[in-house]
Write a structure and sequence with these properties.
alpha/beta; Diaminopimelate Epimerase, Chain A, domain 1; inorganic pyrophosphatase (n-terminal core); five-stranded parallel β-sheet; OB fold (Dihydrolipoamide Acetyltransferase, E2P); 19% strand
Length: 550
């Protein structure tokens, strides 16, 4: 399995790594791994290695959170009608469920509505303003949307409805001015990286500051939303997922338990949730109606749970079939536009289902290793989604495409956009021109980023046991990798593989095809803790001539 990608090594800081490792009583190699995850102080490192609810950051440090809490308490005390409106993806739905459950537990009068992206596009639709008035609502809580909806929030205010926004999307120039705008991007950095489900947790934390049990009850939903939105698993996100994963597996929610059984979630693993559970929860919203998802998450009647689980299963089958058809057409189109020469892949066609552009863009990005934008073209406009690897900022790129983009929003690595139906070629030209100017060609190649270089003898059982405490792995916290130079492969009579550098020997796991015992290799490995020894999982290998990428 000789490497096909370029290798680059995290910059090493031996003095600082050694000092940090001493403070957490670990090997210097661990200190470098902590530095690579942005942890500079011993208190930060200890919090990372020991995630717990008691270590969550102060929720009142978030922008406008004190104002949001004060307004919600007034609404609860005055028995006002509160309408929660949430986005239709897993992050939006789980966040809406958390906010609804929490306010209801305080005695609030709550109604929940969810976005229909097919009929209304992204965000809070103006058509709902009259409905809120008919419900007698005096307060709207916009979840996972609203930051850039200045006019809609103004119109709500004209109708006598105040607004709280709980959102994590990047603010644009025409920022909304609600009663409270709880968005980490609007402050000095507190909460940066939280998705809307994470912000909902902070709301619970602020409303119930001394009730760890209440906070724990929502961690299953919060972990789902955080993983589904690919939020970086550091800081509060790491705590949410660490606490929430086992709670998903042992959930007291009948609907979520039924769904876990149906899709075979058997371990508290981020991969199992993301690959098996999240697509099932996302499917109904992609087809236009996410209400069955919300109801399944909060329903406790067994017969209704079975019915809703069946609805979600059918929706998932439909999205799988449609996505497969669209992906084939998208790949054919990508081949025709010579994707080797395009830094950013832009595909689009009439007849594609607009709710499935996100998954299609994601699969194109994974297959070709570069940003991808997929657009469902209609008669007048096209609606699409984009996905990008970590080194490319989609929001910045679309901001540079003013001539071809009517509207856009989202995050650096995931966004939604609207264009004129005739503007596909113009968008392709503009976004690729921006990528060239930004110098993205080198960074968008297939590059493996390696954490640290070490000798084979340095990867010991105590080191591997500390690395195990870095779990859960995921976005922002990948599984640590170690570069070990000039080693040879050995095998024993049982066919087991070993690595040796003549001074140390470690068991080897992984695909060994193409490696010969008489050669010396540079290898990239991750550690695996067995019962009484450390083993190495082989990630990449090449003949021992490795030089780092400058």
């Amino acid at each position: 399995m000789l490497a096909r990608s370029a290798w680059t090594l995290h910059p090493a800081d031996p003095a600082r790594a050694s000092a940090l490792a001493d403070r957490v009583e670990a090997a210097p190699l661990i200190g470098q791994l902590l530095l690579n995850r942005g942890l500079r102080e011993a208190t930060e490192a200890a919090r990372f290695l020991n995630p717990s609810l008691s270590n969550l950051q102060d929720p009142l440090a978030l922008p406008d959170m004190p104002r949001a809490i004060a307004r919600l308490r007034r609404a609860v005390n005055a028995r006002e009608t509160i309408v929660i409106f949430g986005d239709s993806d897993v992050d939006g739905v789980t966040a809406s469920a958390i906010v609804s459950e929490t306010l209801t537990s305080l005695g609030a009068r709550v109604s929940v509505a969810l976005a229909n992206r097919l009929s209304d596009g992204y965000g809070f639709p103006t058509r709902l303003i009259a409905r809120l008035g008919r419900l007698g609502a005096s307060l709207a809580v916009l979840v996972d949307c609203g930051t850039n909806q200045r006019e809609e929030i103004r119109e709500l205010a004209r109708q006598g409805i105040e607004t709280i926004v709980l959102d994590h999307h990047v603010p644009m120039e025409d920022l909304a001015a609600p009663a409270a705008l709880v968005n980490p991007h609007c402050g000095d950095g507190a909460g940066r990286g939280l998705c809307s489900a994470g912000l909902a947790v902070k709301l619970v934390q602020a409303l119930y500051p001394d009730d760890a049990e209440r906070l724990g009850r929502v961690m299953d939903l919060a972990a789902l939303g955080t993983l589904a939105d690919c939020a970086p698993l550091v800081g509060d996100n790491r705590i949410i997922v660490s606490e929430g994963l086992p709670r998903v597996l042992n959930t007291v929610r009948p609907g979520l338990r039924r769904l876990c059984e149906a899709v075979g979630v058997t371990q508290p693993s981020p991969d199992q949730l993301v690959q098996r559970l999240v697509p099932r929860l996302n499917a109904a919203g992609r087809l236009g109606d996410a209400r069955p998802v919300l109801r399944l998450l909060v329903e406790d009647r067994e017969r209704e749970v079975e019915r809703l689980a069946h609805v979600l299963t059918e929706a998932h089958q439909v999205t799988k079939t449609l996505s497969r058809q669209i992906l084939v057409e998208a790949m054919e189109q990508a081949g025709r536009i010579s994707c080797k020469d395009e830094l950013v892949m832009v595909v689009g066609r009439r007849g594609w289902h607009p709710g499935l552009m996100g998954p299609v863009a994601s699969q194109l990005m994974e297959r070709y290793g570069r940003p991808a934008i997929a657009i469902a073209l209609g008669d007048r406009t096209g609606t699409g989604s984009g996905r990008a690897p970590a080194l490319f900022n989609l929001v910045e790129a679309l901001g540079a495409c003013q001539r071809s983009v009517l509207a856009y929003g989202g995050h650096a690595q995931a966004c939604g956009l609207t264009i004129q139906a005739t503007g596909l070629e113009r968008l392709r030209e503009e976004v690729n021109r921006h990528a060239e100017r930004a110098g993205s060609r080198r960074s968008l190649g297939h590059t493996r980023v390696i954490d640290v270089e070490a000798r084979l003898a340095h990867v010991t059982l105590p080191v591997a046991q500390v690395i195990d405490r870095f779990k859960p792995f995921g976005s922002g916290n990948p599984k640590p990798t170690v570069l070990i130079s000039k080693v040879q492969l050995e095998s024993d009579e049982d066919g087991r593989g070993w690595l040796t550098d003549q001074t140390a020997r470690r068991r080897l796991r992984g695909r060994l095809a193409g490696l010969r015992s008489q050669e010396r290799y540079d290898v990239v490995v991750s550690s695996v803790t067995l019962e009484r020894e450390v083993a190495l999982s082989l990630c990449d290998a090449r003949l021992a001539t490795w030089q780092p990428v400058a």
